[in-house]
Design a protein that fits this description.
The complex is a heterodimer of chains A (42) and B (524). Chain A is mainly α. Chain A has one helix and no strands. In chain A, 71% of the residues lie in helices and 0% in strands. The chains are: A mainly alpha (42), B mainly alpha (524). At the A-B interface, helix 1 of A face helix 1, helix 2 and helix 25 of B.
């Protein structure tokens, strides 16, 4: 997926937006992970 | 494969979220599959994120780790080696060149609670005399036994708590203790003037090695100063740093604001390529306005020089008579001191002078000498003014003269308001010095002292010739000058930003990226 994007060709703005987008998704995954663990504990 | 866009990535993330949402988690087996999926997505996307971070770090580093121009350090080093303008000053005497006038002024106006500075000033003076070849000991302060005692203690162990006790003790007995030290130092200078002159001549010879003249030296220093000014103000690294430290605001540098600044000086229908060709003129105007601000602040100094200059009477005879009086007072002082320490009379009738009477005489002589030295300085400065300035002198020459004799400058500052503190006077002297040492000062070097030109108008007229419009209102007072200079700075900085390919969007993004990098580093 990401291999199809050449980071060095992205503008600063796109790079920042991409970083924020992916960072947000990783945070979402981490929260899902924690939430499920909590539910199993219950 | 077709190139992916940010929208494609965003879509992929949404799809992944939907996939996760549709996965059942109702039993251990399903939950385990769900967790595996999350784990796999996390690994995949964390790697992408790290790759992007690396790219961001690389790019921000390229701009944020910009090192100051290598030339800056070289120029600074060269300038530091040319720090002997005081010694080379062709106008004043060793007394001013070695800054003894300033040291003694400090001593004469000391604060009792600042004994550490008093002691430092005395030690500095002793060091200067030592450089000249006069190794002072307490015995050289023999004009006053209190001064002698204080110097003896100070040169033995100068720890401040101990010296405070000694000062308290001696000051109680002799309230003019510091005056006695100051006057003693002046007497020693007076008696050894030839040594001081010889020292300065030797120093000047050593500084001006080869065929360099004082003018060459000053010119070299001014040119380096101007180069350093440009390096320190208009370099890419410096401009970026100013934005980062909020010294420059991004809002001032958007297209509208920059256009408005150009319009202010070139009219609304200005031609941008013509405007950019004028950057050197804008830089000069920016500096000239600071020069004008300083000139206006110290106009009273120039007024006094002009007044003195118009009165052509020199007071050579008076100088001679004061000098004679000083010699006489020194002799009388020596006599009083000797009477205190040597016995007179014969056999059983031998006796020393009445100490109270002798101390009173010493004190009176010290006070008189102090006044005479001041009188000597003032008349000598007045005479120097009449012989050093002439019909071709410029405003700068006149102000430089005053800087060369800071005693005169301090008197003028005090004449504006007799209640000002010594700290205020020192601050003003330092501002005056920075003003005249500024390598960009130029206008007042080209206006004759007697021309009676309005310097502000001279500047306005000069730039009108270059089609740059400024008005009297733009330079009416400190605030308007500040505003006018701000508009000029926007023009100048935006020019250099463009030269370095730094547009305002780029800087905004650069700062955001820097914040991401800093936050990530802090979290790791």
């Amino acid at each position: 997926m990401m291999e199809d994007i050449k980071l060095s060709e992205l503008s600063f703005e796109d790079l920042i937006n991409l970083f924020n987008m992916i960072e947000e998704f990783v945070n979402y995954l981490e929260s899902e992970e924690t939430q499920e663990v909590e539910e199993v504990k219950k | 494969m077709a190139k992916k866009t940010l929208e494609d990535i965003s879509h992929e993330i949404e799809v992944n979220k939907e996939v996760l949402a549709s996965m059942p988690v109702n039993n251990a087996k399903n939950l385990s599959a769900y967790k595996k999926k999350i784990e796999s997505l996390k690994t995949e996307y964390s790697k992408y994120r790290d790759d992007i971070y690396e790219e961001l770090e690389k790019r921000t580093g390229k701009y944020l780790d910009v090192k100051p121009n290598a030339r800056t350090e070289i120029v600074e080093h060269e300038l530091n080696s040319l720090n002997s303008v005081d010694i080379l000053n062709p106008i004043n005497t060793p007394y001013e060149k070695l800054r003894l006038d300033t040291l003694f002024y400090s001593l004469a106006h000391y604060y009792k609670d600042d004994l550490e500075n008093v002691n430092n000033d005395i030690k500095k003076a002793i060091e200067i005399y030592k450089n000249v070849g006069i190794n002072l000991t307490h015995e050289d302060f023999c004009y006053s036994d209190y001064a002698e005692k204080y110097i003896e203690e100070l040169t033995r162990d100068d720890s401040i708590d101990r010296m405070k006790d000694i000062f308290e003790d001696l000051h109680w007995k002799c309230p003019d203790l510091i005056l006695h030290i100051e006057v003693s130092l002046r007497i020693i200078y007076h008696k050894n003037i030839k040594l001081f002159e010889k020292y300065i001549e030797d120093q000047q010879r050593a500084i001006l090695s080869g065929n360099m003249t004082v003018d060459d030296y000053v010119m070299k220093r001014t040119n380096l100063g101007r180069e350093l000014y440009d390096l320190k103000n208009y370099d890419t690294f410096v401009i970026l740093n100013k934005f980062m430290n909020n010294e420059l605001l991004l809002n001032d540098y958007n297209t509208v604001s920059v256009g408005k600044s150009y319009g202010k000086f070139l009219g609304d229908n200005y031609d941008i390529s013509f405007a950019k060709e004028k950057v050197e003129d804008f830089k000069n105007l920016y500096n000239n306005l600071e020069e004008y601000r300083n000139y206006s602040k110290f106009s009273y100094v120039l007024d006094d020089v002009k007044k003195k200059f118009q009165d052509k009477t020199k007071q050579d005879d008076k100088i001679k008579s004061i000098n004679d009086e000083i010699e006489k007072l020194i002799k009388s002082l020596e006599k009083s001191y000797n009477s205190l320490n040597t016995e007179t009379g014969f056999l059983f009738f031998k006796h020393k002078a009445d100490p109270d009477k002798a101390h009173l005489e010493i004190n009176t002589s010290m006070e008189e000498l102090d006044k005479k030295f001041d009188e000597y300085d003032n008349i000598s400065i007045d005479n120097q003014l009449k012989s050093k300035l002439n019909e071709t002198s410029t405003i700068f020459d006149a102000l430089w003269f005053v800087l060369s004799f800071k005693t005169y400058l301090r008197t003028l500052i005090k004449s504006l308001d007799d209640t000002v503190t010594i700290g205020f006077i020192k601050e003003r002297v330092s501002e005056f010095e920075s003003f005249l040492y500024d390598p960009t000062v130029n206008v007042i070097k080209n206006i004759n002292l007697n021309a009676n030109d309005d310097v502000g108008l001279v500047i306005i007229d000069h730039y009108r010739m270059f089609n740059i419009n400024i008005t009297q209102d733009d330079i009416a007072d400190e605030d308007t000058i500040k505003q006018t200079r701000k508009a000029l700075l926007i023009i100048i900085n935006s020019y250099y930003m463009e030269q370095a390919n730094l547009d305002i969007n780029f800087i905004t993004n650069l700062f955001e990226a820097r914040k991401l990098v800093i936050d990530k580093k802090a979290n790791n």
